[in-house]
């Protein structure tokens, strides 16, 4: 394996996961490797085209964060803060003792505080402008995921939110990597957060045909790469990775989950919501990531695919992966288990890819019963597969034609 210069390698030293699979690394890994879906009927969505979702179970902001968080912060921010605290603790870092000016934050988000906006709009219609909360704007703005995380942990370096739709979390990790490689930061908290399971958002997704119509069978609704797939199950969640230069991580004796060797991004310039039919954009991003990593296509052992369970995405992405990587890598889509967390998906999946490298265990693609005959890939199904994994790829596609890919390697 002809890897790029080690001086520019970026290590993942901490992981934080708050997803429908659970709160924390252990709960997530156990559920994801079980191949059991987290989808349930969502009482808040009754009467909408999609009445099922994947929510984070047992999330109590007051208990997990404390203080004003339960009423002043929107849920997408709360999820991000909890995931970040987990990741920082997992990395063995202490925000009270680090040089905050050298710590950056890059988080992906797309829809911000959609629930706050809907709630306050109803207050406006019902009772007039005097009843609109003065906190509406900071509750609604997408940048507040990074802003409040920085406040919570005293990160005073560059902070920003990447908004490349469902590729946002992957874009965040790639952007954070560049902040480290440029010397602008010594530590970057990177990832994504999303919580937009609201009536208006879900009605919009339902009307555009993105959601599964298999409402009477929630557990089997999300079925990536399956011949009978018909749309995704919406979800919420957050995934945060602590990134450091590998040389710095080793110098302080940190445990390294995985190394981010390569990143690539490209744009379809084709359609607002549909992927370019031949997958040229995501292929460009993947080839750029492989080149950046100094890894050949034949060396890739595992792919955590975007795999949304939608008719267009899965066949486009599947054929692209087959064209670029062949049928050798063990492929999975964890959206079969936790649904589609939108802007958070890429970060959560990068964390799962790092855990796959660490454990040598590929999670199964939940609900894959009959693989689409047009997709020639080795997709893991049924049960997790024990195998040697040294190089993993994570791919993400988003509305607007955004594409991003990461190459991770074992330490």
Automatic annotation (TrEMBL):
<keyword id="KW-0012">Acyltransferase</keyword>
<dbReference type="InterPro" id="IPR000794">
    <property type="entry name" value="Beta-ketoacyl_synthase"/>
</dbReference>
<feature type="domain" description="Ketosynthase family 3 (KS3)">
    <location>
        <begin position="7"/>
        <end position="410"/>
    </location>
</feature>
<dbReference type="GO" id="GO:0030497">
    <property type="term" value="P:fatty acid elongation"/>
</dbReference>
<protein>
    <submittedName>
        <fullName>3-oxoacyl-[acyl-carrier-protein] synthase II</fullName>
        <ecNumber>2.3.1.179</ecNumber>
    </submittedName>
</protein>
<dbReference type="GO" id="GO:0004315">
    <property type="term" value="F:3-oxoacyl-[acyl-carrier-protein] synthase activity"/>
</dbReference>
<dbReference type="InterPro" id="IPR014031">
    <property type="entry name" value="Ketoacyl_synth_C"/>
</dbReference>
<dbReference type="Pfam" id="PF00109">
    <property type="entry name" value="ketoacyl-synt"/>
</dbReference>
<dbReference type="InterPro" id="IPR020841">
    <property type="entry name" value="PKS_Beta-ketoAc_synthase_dom"/>
</dbReference>
<dbReference type="InterPro" id="IPR018201">
    <property type="entry name" value="Ketoacyl_synth_AS"/>
</dbReference>
<keyword id="KW-0808">Transferase</keyword>
<comment type="similarity">
    <text>Belongs to the thiolase-like superfamily. Beta-ketoacyl-ACP synthases family.</text>
</comment>
<dbReference type="InterPro" id="IPR016039">
    <property type="entry name" value="Thiolase-like"/>
</dbReference>
<dbReference type="InterPro" id="IPR014030">
    <property type="entry name" value="Ketoacyl_synth_N"/>
</dbReference>
<dbReference type="Pfam" id="PF02801">
    <property type="entry name" value="Ketoacyl-synt_C"/>
</dbReference>
